[in-house]
Amino acid sequence: MIQHSNKKIGQLALRLTFSEEQREVTNHLGQLGWSYCQGKVGSMELQKIVAAIETASKRNAVVNGDLYREMHALYHAIIESMQGVTRGQVELKDLLRTVGLRFAVVRGTPYDDKAEGEWIAVALYGTIGAPVRGLEHETMGLGINHI
Predict the structure, then answer these.
(1) Per-residue CA distances from 99 to 19, 42, 116, 134, 136 (Å)
(2) Which UniProt keywords apply (predicted)?
(3) pTM of the predicted model, to two decimals?
(4) Residue 58 sits in a domain of what CATH number?
(5) What does the angle CA 5 – CA 126 – CA 86 come to, to the nearest 5 degrees?
(6) What is the spatial distance between Cα 29 and Cα 23, in angstroms, rounded to a whole number?
(7) Number of domains present in the structure of the chain
(8) Which range has the worst mean pLDDT, 13-17, 20-24, 28-32?
(9) Full residue range of the structural domain in which residue 10 is found
(10) Integer Cα distance of 88 and 71 in angstroms
């Protein structure tokens, strides 16, 4: 089960959230034949963040919204990435925290053995803090799941 350095799905998803690397990464993803989407979301409510990422993923055909296994894999990757953003406590509003995030979702086959199937990565980068401008700090999260 070999995973080559140019096929690290999580690293590519994270790099896609940084504006200075987007062109290089999107070209690479195109060469691999992988699908992806990007977007921004800000909220104090977890369900709005999940909905924004799910909607972008469906609209950009990264996942098929009619297939439970694809939506389930995406959901778990989102929650895992939010655990990184929130340092393990996936709560925002109740703890008086808000986030402003850029996200990237990447779907591909990171292993040489085709039997390993497709995987999905959700990367988040942005700010988290009290709902007062200027009191936030940087944060990031990454979630990877098999489809």
Answers:
(1) 18, 5, 34, 12, 8
(2) Activator, Histidine metabolism, RNA-binding, Transcription, Transcription regulation
(3) 0.90
(4) 3.40.1510.10
(5) 90
(6) 10
(7) 1
(8) 20-24
(9) 5-146
(10) 22
